[in-house]
Amino acid sequence: GDKAVVNNDGDNAISNGGTGTQVNGDEATVNNNGNTTVDGKDSTGTEINGDKAIVNNDGDSTILDGGTGTRITGDDATAN
């Protein structure tokens, strides 16, 4: 929903077409504080569908074999 806040404090491993975090709504904030590995086609670490989204990646990200680290669909997004 709108104005969702997600805090991922541990490590994440996403593969086989999976999605680690998905938010549908405007003004969402996702804080990825651990390390993230995304491996494989159609795999996505963080996906947000909405305007004014903010994604903060504070850990290391490893993206392999056609994976996507962060996908935001919407206007006025910020990825740090």
Automatic annotation (TrEMBL):
Give me the stretches of Low complexity compositional bias.
29-38, 62-80
Spell out the Polar residues composition-biased ranges.
Answer: 9-24
Q: Name the segments for region: Disordered.
A: 1-80
| Superkingdom, taxonomy of origin | Bacteria
Q: What is this protein called?
A: Uncharacterized protein
Species assigned in the record: Lactobacillus crispatus
